[in-house]
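Exercise 7 asks you to align residues with tokens for two separate proteins.
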Amino acid sequence: MLAHRIVASVLQPGEMAVDATVGNGHDTLFLARQVGPQGHVYGFDVQEEALARTRRRLEEAGLHERVTLLRMGHEHMAKAVPVAWHGRIGAVMFNLGYLPGGSDRSCITRPQTTVPALEAALRLLRPGGVLTVVAYRGHPGGAEEAEAVRRWAETLDPDRFVAARYAFCNRHRPAPELFVVVRGVAG
């Protein structure tokens, strides 16, 4: 996955990271491996089903002690991450939409909470830290949320952040988009 490659190029062992939407735990597990035994990951989801799946995945890998899972919306991440780590997070990952294989496909991420969560994530990032957002357009509300993320990314101060959008053209229809924001070293 491209988002994993980008984060792996930035996130160092011993750092802290955030999975803003744990879902089935794939990004959470990836982040836990990246930060190593001295690092830590905070994972957020509003669904207990998602947290249970992620917890099981982490336990099977023997990495559950590296992760704090929180049943709360991603828009509250700045309140949950210790203040001492604000401005020091190496990576924040978002995977928008619904819980794949979940029992409730009507429980989806929405622009009203995602955009404030993205703002919070920027405040948490260290200089050189990276934020990734995979946005899916194929479910009800997905296109509107992807557009909200695009509009948000376009407003970022180019002297403080580098923002890019990758559109996959040979994958799912409609194709997901990957947004990547890097906090500038001076910003």
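Second protein for Exercise 7:
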Amino acid sequence: MSSRKLPRSFYARETLTVARELIGLHLVRVGVHGRQVGRIVETEAYKGPHDLAAHSSRGRTKRTEVMFGPPGHAYVYLIYGFWNCMNVVTAADGVPHAVLIRGLEPVAGITDTTHGPGLLCRALQIDRALTGTDLTGGTLWIERPTRDVYRKPSIARSTRIGVDYAGEWAKKPWRFFDTKSPYVSTVSAARRKKMLPAPTST
């Protein structure tokens, strides 16, 4: 196993800590398109079963079973009948917490848009077939970037997106993001264009 790949102990901690510390690390997918790498720039923490914004607040079901299992596994679900979204299971075995990966900055092997949870899953071919995948394995994992490519993020936090139905839980500032990245999902198209480097002529 790569020494840069996150060990299970990284995920087996307080979920807000994991959500924050994932910012700036690399999500790696090895599949039909080879090795694809993206820098994590936006996350959201979900702390069920009491957190009404978490899927696990509805109880232990076939869909959410992986969230109740050991940390360091992928939880992938479908929304709007179209978009897949990837979470990493955190905290202790039996505690249904997870962190949603909301935004990725392309590093290698990625040509499609990644500024949103559904978009990044489409770009990396992450779907429900990967739910339950061990993130310490060789298909899908998170690793620390090498020193030559590491960029320290400027981390801010806010309330989560699209969870107004969760009452008081919707007010929790459990979303973390890199303020310097144009790949954060809430960055406007105009600002994203300004932040991205100009294409070089060949």
